[in-house]
Amino acid sequence: MDRSDAGTRLVLLGTAGGSATYMVDEDGRKDARQGISSALVVDGHVYLVDVGQGAARQLTFADIGGRGPTQALSNLQAVFLTHLHSDHTMDLANLLHCSYNQGWRSDGPVDVFGPGPRGRLPAATSAPASLAVCSSDPTPGTRTFVSRLIEAFSTDLNDRVFAGGKRHPVSLVRAHDVIPPGIEVDPNYCTHPPVQPWVVATDDRVTVSATLVAHGAMYPCLAYRFDTADGSVVFSGDTSPSDNLVRLSQGADVLVHEAIHPQYGEWQFGPGPHSIAEQASIEATMSKHTSTDQVGGVAQAAGVSALVLSHLVPASIPGQRWASAIHGFDGKVIVGEDLLEIEVRCGALPQT
Predict the structure, then answer these.
(1) Residue 3 pLDDT > 50, yes or no?
(2) Is 284 helix (H, G, I), strand (E, B) or coil?
(3) 352 domain-assigned
(4) pTM value?
């Protein structure tokens, strides 16, 4: 191992939440944050948390390990999906396809962890079950999600395997359904039951634990904690304020937490006053996320050293306005930016 690879650092690949491109126009130059995705780099090995729009591109630009674009994915060990909303999963297909040209681990498949199946739509769903997309299995877990993704690209993949001599995709990835022990997944939950954190995965560099968090009707949803020799990093996933998350995060060095700005409704529908339908939509969205006036209290209750804001909605709001909106937290607040790197040091504030 190269000495420059030693240690643990957090690389924010993309910091925008939602399946949208939030345009920022500064001095006539248009730009946009990439979709939500983070890389925890432990002794040169990459563990991805969520793979939103642009994750494969951003890994190439980050050039973790300095191997260049043709080997940009070669140090990827595992992918952890917090839930199966598209803005957290849409670049998994890109990672799979780019593996043929941008490197991939040769000693086995990359493990993909994510929530298990819900079983069926929640009872509160008003539409008839027969109208659901894939009505025979409308809420699959991660294993089925990955399997269907591979099948959807079978024309391309079969050409690469049989005409190009490439590895079969089932040897590239190995999917796992993450299910809390001792708790039956209840399809009628639109919140999350109390649960103690449980270990999901471990190797000689990191131990990964999970808990259930609250993201409206999108159940089950997960948060993850990574414990390394250098410190601990927690990723909230999408959630409203959660006691489960506070338990998972106790004493961690870094909490990477989502945030939604009170101006979300203005971005979505324009300046108010809003119609009854628009206001209902705004309130529904706000209720399943953590607002800027709540997230500081979550970090304070968890006793973390640093709070990193990511999955920003709407992501067109400038960074300084996010920072000024946070209160109730005594530690360090870092507003996430694409490709920002943060050194993780046990017992010390992270260095950017």
Answers:
(1) no
(2) helix
(3) no
(4) 0.95
